[in-house]
Specification:
Number of helices: 13
Shape: globular
Largest sheet: 3 strands, antiparallel
Structural class: mainly alpha
InterPro entries: Cyt_c-like_dom (IPR009056), Cyt_c-like_dom_sf (IPR036909), Cytochrome_c-type_DH (IPR051459)
Pfam family, one: Cytochrom_C
Number of domains: 2
Helix content: 40-55%
Enzyme class: oxidoreductase
Organism: Roseinatronobacter ekhonensis
EC number: 1.17.2.1
Distance between the termini: 57 Å
Length: 295
């Protein structure tokens, strides 16, 4: 009996140690940040493509999109997430972060304190970004106005309030592989980088499984709205019939081919993407049409 109890205890300890190892945060090698120098001017383009202001600008009417005080609520089946303050304020924002801290947050979903961020922060897409672009983004964001609004804690129940468990989720779903592959043209390749990595289109337009992982077999084919209010439309699949011109014009102006106007969170996305070069919007359009043909 004692031997059986000892075996059970030993197996439990081994299992716990294995779980602790699997769920550990895995930061970028220190050498990645050490070899980079950010360019704030170049970082503005990454800021627009990445849609940082769409989630992190203030929630009041007429909020300045460059004051990233956060506060927006995102209701999901797991609880309510609140966008944090990512302004350069040293106490309530990211003003005390190093460039390496920023790269680990954006590309690995790890806080400066070594904790996992929840994947409501789309680091699974940003993980595909060029580290130089992320360093440029850091340099640009440090030029923006600081704001001392405290971040609000997420409202999550058990077991989702255990951050360490996010390590299991990352092990299941986080990788840097491109979803749309094959013999892409230069324009489609540029569009893939913009859409899959920076603009993270799939984070909203791709359905998710019961654990919140994207179902890549149904890439960009529409998804349930996490808040439970309606659906996010497809931008691939048999129900999507827009042309490249339609897509590019929509991203630039917010007008659909039927002259409807983008609303809700998409209006904020277009407010950012619409400031990119027309060639970049055309590249996103080319990528989306290529994704529509992906088998």
């Amino acid at each position: 009996m004692k031997r059986a109890a000892f075996v059970v205890l030993a197996l439990g300890l081994l299992g716990g140690a294995a779980a602790w190892f699997i769920t550990r945060p895995s930061p970028l090698p220190a050498t990645v940040s050490q070899r980079l120098t950010g360019d704030a001017a170049a970082g503005e383009r990454i800021f627009l493509a990445g849609g940082c202001a769409s989630c992190h600008m203030g929630t009041q009417d007429g909020a300045d999109p460059k004051v990233l005080r956060g506060g927006a609520a995102f209701d999901t089946q797991f609880g309510t997430f609140y966008a944090p303050n990512i302004s350069p304020d040293p106490d309530h924002g990211i003003g005390g972060w190093s460039q390496a801290d920023f790269l680990n947050a954006v590309m690995r979903g790890i806080s400066p304190q070594g904790q996992h961020y929840y994947p409501a922060f789309p680091y699974t897409s940003y993980a595909k970004a060029d580290p130089q672009d992320v360093a440029d983004l850091y340099a640009y964001m440090m030029t923006l106005p600081a704001d001392a609004t405290p971040s609000r804690a997420h409202d999550l129940g058990f077991p989702f309030n255990i951050r360490r468990s996010v390590g299991v989720w990352k092990a299941l779903y986080m990788n840097r592989d491109w979803v749309v592959t094959g013999d892409l043209t230069a324009e489609e390749t540029q569009g893939r980088y913009l859409a899959e990595a920076l603009a993270h289109c799939a984070e909203c337009h791709t359905p998710r499984d019961m654990l919140g992982g994207m179902q890549t077999a149904n890439w960009l084919q529409g998804a349930a709205n996490p808040s439970g209010d309606g659906r996010i439309p497809p931008i691939a699949g048999e129900d999507f019939t827009w042309t490249a011109f339609d897509i590019s014009a929509y991203l630039e102006t917010g007008f659909t081919p039927s002259f409807d106007v983008a609303g809700g969170s998409m209006a904020k996305v277009i407010a950012n993407l619409g400031q990119l070069d027309k060639a970049e919007l055309d590249a996103i359009a080319a990528y989306i049409l290529r994704a529509d043909k992906q088998e």
